[in-house]
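User: For documentation purposes, I need each entry recorded in a consistent format: the amino acid sequence on its own, followed directly by the corresponding C-alpha cells. There are two entries in this batch. Please keep commentary to a minimum and don't merge the entries.

Assistant: Recorded as requested. Entry 1:
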Amino acid sequence: MTAAALVGVAMLYFAGTAGAQKAAAPEGKIKAADFALTDIEGKPVKLSDYKGKVVILDFWATWCPPCVKEIPHFNELSKKYASKGLVVLGVSVDQGGLPAVKKFMAKTPVNYRIALGEDKTYGVYQNYLPQQERGGIPFTFIVDKEGFIREHYVGYRDIEVFEAALKGLL
C-alpha cells in the first residue's frame, strides 16, 4: 500500500470517528436495549420514550418483600427529581400479570409508571447482569440520558445508594 493510500485510509477512519465521540459509551458501559411493553393502563411504553431523561428501571414483583420495600424510595426519588429529568419505570415480572399488579396497587401507593414485563425483556436485562447475580429480584438499572446503563443493582438498596448513583447524571 502506498503512503498516499495509507494517509487516505487514516483520514477516512478519523473522519468517521470524529463525530462519534459525543455518542460513545461511557467506559465499560453498554447501551440499554429498547423494549415495547404495555403499562397497567394499557398504554404502550418503550425505554426510547425517555431519551434525554435519566431512568431508574426497576424489575420487581408484588410478592417480593425487598421489591415492595424499595417502592417508597422510588416514590420519593420520582417526586424529588422528576423536575431534573428523572423517570422511574417499574417493570412487573408478576406471573399473575395485570390483575396481581392492580390488586397490589389498590393497597400500596406507587407514583411512577408500571409496565407489565414479558419474558423477552426480562431475559435481555438479566443478561446485562454478571452471571453470578442473575435470577434474583428486584434488579434495577440506572440508564443515563443517552440510554447507557450506568449502574445495576440486584436486591434491596437504601435510597442513598440510588441518590449517589444519580449524582452527576441529572
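Entry 2:
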Amino acid sequence: MTNPAVDEPGAARSRETFGAESILVPASLRTWFRVHFVVDLVAAIPLLLFPGRTLGLLGWTTIDPVATRLCGAALLGIGGASALVERHGLAGYRALLGLKVIWSAAAIFALLAGIAEGAPPAAWAFLSIFIAFSGVWMSYAIRLRQLERFGLLDATAEPFDIGAPESNENDENAAS
C-alpha cells in the first residue's frame, strides 16, 4: 500500500519547504502564541457566558453585558487564531503578530482611560497582563523586521499548502 502524501511527485520538495517555513518562525514565538491562546480562552469563556457574575466578582459595579460579551468574543477570536496560525507559516504569524501589537496597544489605552475614570483595582491586573503581552509582541515584531532587513528572512515567504503537491517541469513533460 502506498502513501499518497509521500509517493506523489514533488512531495519531498513540499516536506522540505514546510520544514524550512517552520524553521523561519522562532520556536519561542510559537510557544508565546500557544500561551496567549490559553490565557485568552480562560478569560473569554466567563466573559461570554457569565458577564455580570464575572465582572461583579472582579469589582465592577456597572456592567454592560453586550460590551462584556464582545470583549470575550474578541479574546476568543484572537486566542483561537493564535492556536490555528501554525498551518499558515511565517506569513500567518507575521499578520497575526501585527494584529496582536495593535490589539494590545489599544487595550492598554482603554484600560488606562478606564482606570482614570475610576475602574476597580482588577483593571490594574488586566493592564499589567496587556503591557506584558504587548512587550512580547513588539519585541518579536522588531526581531522579525531586523531579520528581514539583514536578509535572514524572506519578506515574501508564503504559507505552504500541505494538501497541494507542487508541480515541476518533470511532471509537465511526463504528461505530454
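Summary note for entry 2:
Residues 1-22, 159-171 have pLDDT under 50 and may be disordered.
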